[in-house]
Amino acid sequence: MMAAHSDVWVIYSPNESSLFGDNGFWSNMHGWASIDRATHFTRNEADTLELPIATGRDARFVLYSEARRHYSQRYMPGSFFVLQSRYLLLNLFVLHAPDQQSGAFF
Predict the structure, then answer these.
(1) How far apart are the C-alpha atoms of 60 and 51, rounded to whole Å?
(2) What angle do CA 102, 98, 95 make, to 5 degrees?
(3) Does residue 77 contact residue 45 with C-beta atoms inside 8 Å?
(4) N or C, where is the chain less crowded by C-beta within 10 Å?
(5) What is the pLDDT of residues 54-70, one digit of tens each?
(6) Where are the domains of the chain?
């Protein structure tokens, strides 16, 4: 039985993506690779497995559907997403933490 996209997780590292030509997704076979080669994990695996070593120790589990939605936009011809999508992922998975005082999101 195929898992719903909301149950599929991948490992993403903004630093690895920046350093190695957008190969910021973890593949158990290839190491840091493109999103198309990323290993898919279940929620249970995301909760229990260790993360691979990444530059700056910034690797984290992210929903595959969210990563695909934001990351695939970079390849739209004539789009400015080529630069913007890298920042989108960084903002989604690194900066979206509640402000300690106000509770607002950055």
Answers:
(1) 7
(2) 130
(3) no
(4) N
(5) 999 999 999 999 998 87
(6) 9-95
Beta bridge partners of 98: 105
- 26: helix, strand or coil: strand
Residue 82 parent element (H or E) = helix 81-90
DSSP class of residue 98 equals: B
Q: Which amino acid is at 71?
A: Y
In order of 8, 41, 48, 50, 106, the CA distances from 3 in angstroms are: 7, 10, 18, 21, 32
Distances (CA, A) of 84 to 7, 76, 79: 26, 12, 9
List, for residues 70-92, the tens digit of each pLDDT value. 776 554 444 334 444 444 555 55
Q: Which two tokens stand for residue 38?
A: 């990323």
Phi and psi at 13, nearest 5°, equal -130, 115
- Rounded to 5°, the CA angle 88-93-99 comes to 105
- 54 token code pair: 């990444």
The structure tokens 């739209």 sit at: 76
